[in-house]
Amino acid sequence: MTKENILKEIDNAKEAHNDQVKKVEDLFSGYTVQNPTPKDKKKCDFGLWLYNPNNRLKELVGEEMFENVVRCHDEWHIDYHEIYEAFYNKPEQNFLEKVFRIQKGMDPVTFQMSNFYHREIIVASCKLVCHLDECKKAILALDASKFD
């Protein structure tokens, strides 16, 4: 794989992550999100790339830089799990709510907690993007002999 291909993979992964962040933003803006991000960190689009056995990022940038990316991605998913639970795992409606088609909103405490996790996701996302940019710089500095 060429240096350019690896840099493009990182850009694609960053774009995939940003798409997931957009879905969270849409939730908080009141939109219905089709195909929400999986809670499992290895099943989201970014995680599929990051944990792919053919991904050479760790080999090219080293353990420390790679682990920084993994840690931020893990933090993102820990916070996202709470948001997912608040928005998608609502308690079932009781009989009267079903009959009269009453839609219950999120209770205020859960909404406040979700806002907290939302802010934490933004922080983790910013850190993740910064670490990906550092990886790109490290890869750019590598000699061509490191690539196929």
Brief summary of the model shown:
This protein is mostly helical and 148 residues long.
Descriptive account of the structure:
With 148 residues, the chain is an all-alpha fold. The chain has a single domain (3-146), classed as Four Helix Bundle (Hemerythrin (Met), subunit A). Helix content is 69%, strand content 0%. The radius of gyration is 19 Å and the shape is elongated. The model has no long low-confidence stretch (mean pLDDT 90).
Q: Summarize the amount of helix as a percent range.
A: 55-70%
Overall number of structural domains: 1
Can you give the mean pLDDT? 90
Main β-sheet description:
none
Structural class designation:
mainly alpha
What secondary-structure arrangement, pairings included, does this model have?
Blueprint: H1 3-28, H2 45-50, H3 57-61, H4 63-88, H5 95-99, H6 108-141
Helix pairs in contact: 1-6, 4-6
What are its keywords?
about 150 residues, Four Helix Bundle (Hemerythrin (Met), subunit A), mainly alpha, 6 helices
